Amino acid sequence: MDYFIELLLGGLTRGSIYALIALGYTMVYGIIELINFAHGEIYMIGAFTALIAASVLTLFGFNAASILVLASLAAIIYSAAYGYTVEKIAYKPLRNAPRLSPLISAIGMSIFLQNYVLLAQTSDFLPFPALIPDFDFMKNYEHIFGSTELVIVATTMTVMIILTILIKFTKIGKAMRATAQDRKMAMLVGVNVNRIISVTFVIGSSLAAIGGILIASHIGQINFNIGFIAGIKAFTAAVLGGIGSIPGAVLGGFVLGWTESFATGYVSSDYEDVFAFVLLVLILIFRPAGILGKSSSQKV
User: Fold this and answer.
1) Domain count, the chain
2) Which residues, 6+ apart, have CB-to-CB distance to 238 below 8 Å?
3) Is 81 contained in some domain?
4) In a domain, 6, yes or no
5) Which domain holds residue 69?
6) DSSP 134
7) SS3 266
8) What pLDDT is recorded for position 294?
9) Is residue 178 in some structural domain?
10) Angle, helix 39-59 to helix 64-86, in steps of 10 degrees
11) Nearest Cα to 290, choosing from 235, 233, 259, 252?
């Protein structure tokens, strides 16, 4: 039973990371129906930015709490700037182009950012400091669920609630929903669609940076290639839950995390990715819109 609980909590932690990144995918898709394949690289850039900031702050003698806050802020701001720039350079000029064009542009941007970080940093794995402190009340549970895991899960749930409130009850959230429903009509009623799309990219990139910091602190190392695998898994989670749905992205992340965790624990770690993508195929066959997604019909 203890082993089952350990796998359950491990899958919850892993799923929370997928969910944080998947939220960025689902927000962008919900607004402009574009799969931002460079999103995983923004996650990777956030982790590298946090590492550099933490290293500099350590040299200047900052305490652990200050390093965590300041390094996180630096990563979020830098990643948000990247997300904004990527949208302006790679996606905005292709807004009215055939749908295949922005998709190819997104893949190209992903490859560009990978190689940019490879040349700017290194191809080796770099150690990442444990930025999240150990909580005294968690000491008895460290062997199955530590302080870092608790922060990861709590952050994911908090972000989901904040995003839901933002989209449902704020002015900018209403503008996002209007843009997602009918971009041309939103423009006619005075919504600045370009600004809304940019804000969506900024929010999604900020979430990716938070995910990068948390998972890097949890694993203890980073590499220029970590964004590719994490991005593919997060995209899978978004599709599982119903891409375009915020609760769906979180649920999809949890389902994917538990699938990988139990497959690793009871079958073999060699089949971890196989089970994840078999689950995706099954969902696409039996419920193409995802677990919480809604099927859309077009009037002819």
Assistant:
1) 1
2) 22, 25, 26, 29, 248, 249, 252
3) yes
4) no
5) 19-286
6) P
7) helix
8) 63
9) yes
10) 150
11) 252
